[in-house]
Design brief:
By secondary structure, the protein is an alpha/beta fold. The protein has a 7-stranded parallel beta sheet, with helices on both faces. It starts with a strand and ends with a helix.
Length: about 375
């Protein structure tokens, strides 16, 4: 039986992972669960899966924890992530927390010789060189949970050792694929959050609308598969069925990539909707328009410069998306702010973990100042 710690258990990835554990109770035992603030949902998960440790990164008093879930050890604040990632004995750690906190969690898990199942973009976007070096030291590959990277990983398993000439990442094109740049300029939050295929959190849905999400995935692929950015191409594929080429075809659903990572190298039975090719009818592809979606070009530029610049890209984007979601800036200000911030970032060629967190804090603050200036101008 494999033991698993799930960081971010109440989010979309965490809850779907627990569905798989529920389907295969003889294969997996949950030893740790953490959430940010969804206490009621976490209490329900603790009652069902009975982990050794549970925690909330937004602390609450012990008096607010129900008696029937106090059988396990409760840890509050950022310490909850460290304990779940590195202190609780676990065969694997699913890192599905949101934000740059995922970098420290991944490093903690690798430092404790854990197999990392990665569903956090920021860890590789901001500190890919640190993560991959740590994974090499312990001799355990990072198992990607993101659908496109899982697809490439699965394709390479069947490649017989042959090295790919290039990697293709597919992109749905998001809600604004058929809009003009002029229409997108005044896109409302509600319109940007209406993704045609995927059900995701607000931040990642806006990143999909700008195509920054795909830019982040290019950076992740560069580190996961040790491939230069000029050999990683993006193609728009509105149906979201082919997740990479050589193709791994699946419905736009995260259960298959989670199942592949959690059960690797075995493939566990999965009770999800299967792809019906007759129903599908056709599949289309075309090149992304980087004039309409400049975020994708910014991500390539950041990865080409390297060092701490992808971290700056991520930090500025996080601040700008938050401002857009609060109706403080218009849609294209997101990428304008990101572009300005990465140009202002003091370059560090080989950043340490401390450098990454410092860059993140400084550039997030810089982006907020730019947002304040825009807001004052109206």
């Amino acid at each position: 039986m494999q033991t698993i710690a799930i960081l971010g258990s109440t989010g979309s990835i965490g809850t779907q992972a627990l569905e798989l554990v529920r389907l295969h109770p003889e294969e997996f035992r949950v030893v740790a669960l953490t959430a940010r603030s969804s206490r009621k949902k976490l209490f329900e998960q603790v009652r069902e899966f009975r982990p050794e440790v549970a925690g909330l990164t937004e602390p609450i008093p012990m008096s607010e924890i129900p008696e029937d879930v106090r059988f396990c050890r409760w840890v509050m604040g950022e310490e909850a992530l460290r304990v779940a990632a590195a202190e609780v004995p676990a065969d694997m750690v699913l890192v599905s927390v949101v934000g740059i906190a995922g970098l420290q969690s991944v490093m903690d898990a690798l430092g404790a010789n854990r197999q990392v199942l990665l569903a956090n973009k920021e860890a590789l976007v901001t500190g890919g060189h640190l993560v991959m070096d740590a994974a090499k030291r312990i001799g355990k590959p990072i198992l990607p949970v993101d659908s496109e990277h899982s697809a490439i990983f699965q394709c390479l398993q069947g490649a017989g050792g042959n090295q790919p000439v290039r990697l293709l990442l597919t992109a749905s094109g998001g809600p604004f694929r058929t809009w003009t740049r002029e229409q997108m300029q005044n896109a409302t939050r509600a319109q940007a959050l209406k993704h045609p295929n995927w059900s995701m959190g607000a931040k990642i849905t806006i990143d999909s609308a700008t195509m920054m999400n795909k830019g982040f995935e290019v950076i992740e692929a560069r580190w996961l598969f040790d491939t230069p950015c000029d050999r990683i191409n993006v193609v728009v594929h509105p149906e979201s069925i082919i997740h990479s080429v050589i193709a791994q075809l699946a419905c736009p659903d995260m259960r298959e990539p989670i199942q592949f990572a959690i059960g690797f190298p075995e493939r566990l039975p999965l009770a999800n909707k299967k792809l019906d090719f007759a129903e599908l009818g056709g599949i289309t592809f075309f090149k992304p328009d980087t004039e309409k979606f400049p975020a994708l070009a910014l991500a390539y530029k950041a990865m080409e410069r390297g060092g701490n610049i992808p971290c700056a890209l991520n930090a500025a984007n996080e601040a700008a998306v938050a401002a857009y979601l609060h109706d403080r800036i218009s849609f294209y200000w997101i990428t304008d702010i990101v572009g300005e911030c990465i140009e202002c970032t003091p370059f560090i060629k080989e950043p340490s973990v401390e450098d990454i967190f410092k860059t993140n804090e400084e550039i997030y603050s810089l982006a907020q100042r730019k947002i304040e200036g825009i807001a004052k101008k109206g």
